[in-house]
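Morning run. Coffee first, then this:
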Amino acid sequence: MQQHFSTAGSRAASTKTTLADKNASLRRFKLITFALLVAILLAACGGSDAPSAESEEAPAAADTATAEPQPDPTATTEPEPTAAPEPEPTDTPQPEAEPTATAEPQQEADSESADMPAGSQTFTIVPEESEARFIIEEELLGQPKTVIGATNAISGELMVDAANPAASAIGPIQIEAGTFVTDDNRRNGAIRRFILQTSQYQFITFNTTELVGLPDAVAVGDEIEFEINGDLTVRDITNPTLFVITLQVVSESELRGSAATIVAREDYNLTIPQVPSVANVGTELIVEFDFVARAQ
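And here it is:
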């Protein structure tokens, strides 16, 4: 009996141990299963949260993207009308200043033309700023040569009536014949002694007889071209001569001009001395004047 109870007790103890082991295994299984379920739920929650966050962030980004271009065009359209009118008022005052600038020269021109005397005014030639010259061709040592003789020993007056130029007058104009200078001293001596005979005839003179082609009125800044008819005297010979003149009215007190004509040597018996080195002297010479005249 004792052996039977001991055997039965041992069996019961082993059975308890087995049940305890099974219960422990069951609890482990339940814990593992619960952990798995929790993990699955967490994964499911995490997966559902991620796309929802992305879906929420995407429309938010879309909303911000759509919201950003909307203020941009409004910002660009707003400065453009404000920038456009700003240069326009600045440009408009500038042309307003231009008419005043154009009005000033008009006033100056009016004042300058008004400054010209209504009656006649006398202008005297300034010798230091004037020049008379002759130009003639020759052959020197068998080569063509242009001979120019010049002097600034000029005297004379111009009487100008700006309101009635036809009433103006020029001259007499005088040149000291012995002062012509060329590029050769021997030629200078021949001109004085033999050609112009300056020891006997000191001046070459021009006396005006008529002014042709003058305008109806003259103002400061005008440049006019006309003709002067008159008598040119070289030594003791006088011939009618026509000069073409260009006259510039620089100011109410200054005139500048140039005049020219062609003179035939035979008309004044201008004989060239025979020199071996000189041949074929031209039969005509050009006579020119450049002058400055100022009011008295």
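Residues 1-84 form one domain. Good start to the day.
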